[in-house]
From TrEMBL:
This is Transmembrane protein 45B. One of its GO terms (cellular component) is membrane. Belongs to the TMEM45 family. InterPro entries: DUF716, TMEM45. It is a multi-pass membrane protein. It is found in: Membrane. The lineage of its organism: Eukaryota, Metazoa, Chordata, Craniata, Vertebrata. The keyword Nucleotide-binding does not apply. The keyword Transcription does not apply. Keywords: Membrane, Transmembrane, Transmembrane helix. Its main location: membrane. Pfam families: DUF716. The chain crosses the membrane at residues 6-27, 47-65, 97-116, 123-140, 152-170, 182-203, 215-240.
């Protein structure tokens, strides 16, 4: 959709997954460090399954939104009257959602004992991100300078994320790569929203001058600020997870110490009673 909603929708999806990954991966990493071997692998496998279902569901919502909005193509690619293309921008967004949907389906299949190759889920996700980058690279040709520039900045996050995921195919469960992917996903999410605000101002806000170089300079600086905020969010979430994991680790120790004290007092009472009976 060539409007604000068309950018806010994918932005929300990327933001949700980025925030979720910024919590899930530190939680798994810190649990494994604390416990040596994570005894809740089944729990994390279920989370992967739920994540795949949500990914497929979000993709389906995106496809339906792109195709069946009032001014959408309604699954028509070519106009039968003049043989012209119908709403190719919507079709590009639909294609992006399609590949993310395929990634979600692969995530779901990976959960079941089908002996799928290890890393196939990461590979399918990496392909989806590459397709997204390819589509957006050819999305803005012959568009105003600011429009082209703001989308080209998005490609930095997209292809950075794609490279990270492709490395994850061979280096699975690497916390640095996973956190890097999460940060770039958050960046994609917030930047999609930023694109919407710049190209389709809300509430009667003045339109941006698409040819002013100062606007290009500001948008570049703004992109860096977005990533700084993404890194701050990552740091906060990691700190919160670290605090919760360590707090949970100390609780059994406190309980054990309490039981030891109770048992020792009980033993002292029994000993004193026995001593009193011996004196009698």
């Amino acid at each position: 959709m060539a409007n604000f909603k068309g950018h806010a929708l994918p932005g929300s999806f990327f933001l949700v997954f980025g925030l979720w990954w910024s919590v899930k991966y530190p939680l798994r990493y810190l649990n494994r460090k604390v416990k040596g071997n994570c005894r809740s692998n089944k729990c994390y496998d279920r989370l992967e399954l739920i994540e795949g279902i949500l990914k497929a569901l979000f993709s389906l919502i995106g496809i339906l939104a792109e195709q069946f909005v009032p001014d959408g193509p309604h699954m028509h690619l070519v106009n039968g009257e003049d043989h012209s293309w119908v709403k190719l921008m919507n079709w590009q967004h639909t294609t992006m959602y399609l590949f993310y949907g395929i990634s979600g389906v692969v995530d779901i299949l990976t959960y079941f004992p089908l002996n799928l190759p290890r890393g196939l889920d990461r590979l399918s996700l990496g392909i989806a991100v590459i397709v997204e980058g390819l589509l957006f690279y050819y999305h803005v040709h012959n568009r105003p300078a600011l429009d082209q520039h703001i989308h080209s900045l998005l490609l930095i996050a997209v292809f950075g994320c794609a490279i990270s995921i492709m490395i994850e195919v061979f280096m699975r469960n690497d916390i640095v790569l996973e956190l890097f992917r999460a940060s770039l996903s958050i960046l994609q999410g917030t930047w999609f929203w930023q694109i919407g605000f710049v190209l389709y101002p809300l509430g009667g806000a003045p339109e941006w001058n698409q040819t002013d170089h100062d606007n290009v300079m500001f948008i570049t600086m703004c992109f860096c600020w977005h990533y700084a905020v993404a890194l701050l969010i990552m740091a906060i979430n990691y700190s919160l997870v670290y605090y919760c994991v360590n707090r949970h680790k100390k609780l059994p120790v406190i309980v054990d110490n309490g039981l030891i004290k109770i048992n020792s007092k009980k033993a002292e009472v029994e000993a004193s009673l026995l001593a009193g009976s011996d004196e009698e």
